[in-house]
């Protein structure tokens, strides 16, 4: 079973994403802020980490930047979710080390399809 970490501070959105991805057979761990996300990443192996851009503790950008300095996590696939959908925001996410970028609002079906493409490569 593929394992995913979802770091999203909005509980309702987190629940929607978890329900969607669990229906597709993924095992999901949930973090409600950037610091909690880093702890999960340090302690576990994931096929994909999905982080919100704006979270308490550490932003999604900060989480990704820190993960990219971890010796055994540099190849971890990371997706940025964000309401900040300008080109400069996507470029900042890519510079930080995000592999994928998805702007809010998004279709849960589109997210599930993208996740399927990412983790089944």
From TrEMBL:
A Pfam family the protein falls into: Response_reg
Family matches, as PROSITE patterns: RESPONSE_REGULATORY
InterPro entries linked to this entry: Bact_response_regulator (IPR050595), CheY-like_superfamily (IPR011006), Sig_transdc_resp-reg_receiver (IPR001789)
Matching SUPFAM superfamilies: CheY-like
BP terms from Gene Ontology: phosphorelay signal transduction system
Lineage: superkingdom: Bacteria
Gene3D superfamilies tied to this protein: 3.40.50.2300
Domain Response regulatory: 3-119
Positions where 4-aspartylphosphate occurs in the chain: 52
Keywords per UniProt: Phosphoprotein
Protein name: Response regulator
């Amino acid at each position: 079973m593929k394992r995913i970490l979802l770091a999203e501070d909005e509980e309702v959105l987190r629940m929607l994403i978890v329900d969607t991805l669990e229906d597709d057979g993924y095992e999901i761990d949930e973090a409600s802020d950037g610091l909690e996300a880093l702890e999960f990443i340090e302690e576990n192996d994931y096929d994909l980490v999905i982080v919100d851009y704006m979270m308490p503790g550490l932003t999604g950008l900060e989480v990704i930047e820190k993960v990219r300095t971890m010796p055994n996590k540099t190849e971890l696939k990371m997706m940025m979710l964000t309401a900040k959908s300008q080109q400069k925001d996507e470029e900042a996410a890519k510079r930080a080390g995000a592999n994928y970028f998805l702007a809010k609002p998004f279709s849960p079906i589109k997210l599930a399809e993208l996740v399927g493409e990412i983790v089944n490569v």
